[in-house]
User: What shape does this take?
Amino acid sequence: MPGVDDGAADLDQSRAALERMHANGVRALVTTPHLDASTSASPERLAAALAALDPAWEALRAMAAAEFPDLRLERGVELMLDVPRPVVDDPRLRLAGTRFVLVEFPFLAVPPGGSNVLFEMRAAGWEPVLAHPERYAGVDPTLSGPEEWRRVGARLQVNWGSLLGRYGPGAQAVAWALLERGWADYLSSDHHARGRLGMADARALLLERGGEEPLRLLSEENPARLLDGEPPLPVPPLPPRARPLWKRLLRLR
Assistant: This one.
């Protein structure tokens, strides 16, 4: 959305972002400006926040309808869990108005009781989709944190850019480890209307690994199901990376 967050400064930047996405084959997307969960818990603050978002959404929607008629554009937010009990009754806080809610832990750190928040959201009938699980401090390739988040019912959304190392080698290692275990449910651009998308490069890497079916599920089937309010299908583990020949020879010795 233009002019409401740390993404597009104006409608021209929004247009350029949609052009990049469209050129990469995107035909449906949800725009998700940041919102604090504490705002959602206050009716007055939430009304003010949504009043600020609504005109930007309408401008984006009108532009997209006129210039990208084959693009399905929906809205939601990325809800930062700065309080333990977010209120997401308003459909504008959920992805395309479904029961799915994109959430993130504050400041890329997992707070005490973070898993309980996800569990309580599921118990209340919502489907928390945890943004960029590979990027939180303390998460490593052993995946103890993501394992717990999956156990309590959260869906996991990995960034395309993480697969390319754009958020550092640690996030990159965790992102690939999630795919290798079949624990990711969606791939996301996390695009802030600036820079390269990285989708084409990441797709090429997945295909090199023999990940045709995981790629289809992560980037096509499961996102389409989400937009229809349906749970994701299980994603098969990505085939393990082939060991370099010299390492295999050393192991044989």
Summary: The chain has a mean pLDDT of 93.
